[in-house]
Design goal:
This protein is mainly alpha-helical. Among the domains are: 136 residues, no CATH class; 31 residues. The chain contains 13 helices and three strands, in the order ααααααααββαααβαα. Strands 1-2-3 form a three-stranded antiparallel beta sheet. The longest helix has 23 residues. The protein is extended. The termini are far apart.
């Protein structure tokens, strides 16, 4: 009887995994785009392997833990184990492994660590992670190029990257222990219109301005005073709540929060597109100008893209004009 039950369980799991595998296949790492990462979740609306999940839950906790343990839950670990089994059965079921590999790389895990977890079925290999990073960088640059044609803001900050502990330190001849650079992001502006930046209306209003008057331009209105008073009340209450541990549960009370004056729509997030990091620091004015030149003139990388050949052509043309007596202008 036990043998028949084991065979039944194996057949049931095989059928469930076949269905799960068909819905989890990816054609390759190129499918893992920034949009894919934003939308992918570990939790699924429908569990297509309920029999396997129940077996894993039974193995992951005791009956006593099931009844009394309110902190340690087996659902997440069972979902991870299921994806390990999927990746073991087909290396094209790599959604979880690709994202976890990116997490390991982004948090500074060593190559040996990533390759060890690849052997455990939790991550793709280190070379695959680097290929995925390169692919994601290309996708982000495409998004940045498209966003640059729309009203946007450009922001950047300094970046410091620690090199591997295995890199030989040879003074100025070798790589630095810490590599400094700059990382930029383009943000799509909400409610921005190009006509708002026209210089003619701005200059017209500037010339017609009458100067600043205290009562008209600086003195706060009753609405402004009321809003400022409410903000100060909330600040004082939060300071008092922070001083007494017994009132800590009231800090997040909706009635004790600052009132939004110009609230954005609920759930709205600013759309951003990062660009590639460079080794140009932002420490000085010259470095800032170099970074602007590097980002805004990214296509001027060779004589052809800089159109140097045409500049030389016009130079020779004007030289011939100056030398040739027929073309030389004469005074009548």
């Amino acid at each position: 009887m036990r043998t028949q039950l084991v065979e039944f369980a194996c057949d049931t799991v095989a059928d469930e995994m076949k269905v799960r595998r068909s819905s989890s296949l990816l054609s390759g790492l190129q499918v893992v785009t920034p949009t894919f990462i934003e939308e992918w979740q570990l939790d699924e609306e429908v569990d297509t392997t309920p029999f396997l999940t129940q077996i894993l839950k039974t193995a992951a906790q005791t009956e006593h833990g099931k009844l009394h343990n309110k902190i340690k839950k087996p659902e997440k670990i069972c979902q991870v184990i299921t994806r390990q089994l999927l990746y073991q059965s087909s290396n094209r079921c790599l959604a979880f492994q690709a994202e976890f590999g990116l997490f390991l790389w982004a948090t500074g895990s060593a190559r040996q660590t990533i390759d060890a977890l690849f052997r455990c079925g939790l991550s793709i290999c280190y070379d695959g992670v680097l290929n995925l990073v390169e692919s994601l960088a290309t996708h982000c640059m495409r998004r940045a190029v498209l966003m640059s044609n729309l009203p946007h803001s450009f922001n950047y900050d300094n970046l410091n990257i620690s090199t591997s502990i295995f890199v030989e330190q040879r003074g100025g001849a070798g790589p630095a222990k810490v590599q400094s650079g700059t990382f930029g992001i383009l943000y799509k502006l909400r409610n921005a219109h190009p006509e708002h930046m026209l210089i003619a209306p701005i200059m017209k209003r500037f010339k017609a301005s009458k100067g600043i008057e205290f009562n008209r331009d600086i003195k706060p209105s009753l609405d402004h005073l009321s809003a400022f008073h409410d903000q100060l009340v909330i600040v004082i209450i939060h300071s008092l709540l922070a001083a007494v541990d017994g009132f800590s549960n009231l800090v997040k009370d909706p009635r004790l929060q600052h009132t939004a004056r110009r609230p954005i729509p609920a759930g709205y997030t600013t759309d951003g597109a990062p660009v590639r990091a460079t080794t140009i620091p932002e420490a000085t004015v010259r470095d800032n100008l170099l970074y602007h030149d590097d980002i805004l003139r990214a296509q001027d990388i060779d004589p052809w893209s800089r159109r140097d050949i045409f500049q030389l052509g016009f130079g020779l043309f004007h030289l011939c004009l100056a030398i040739c007596p027929i073309r030389r202008p004469t005074m009548s």
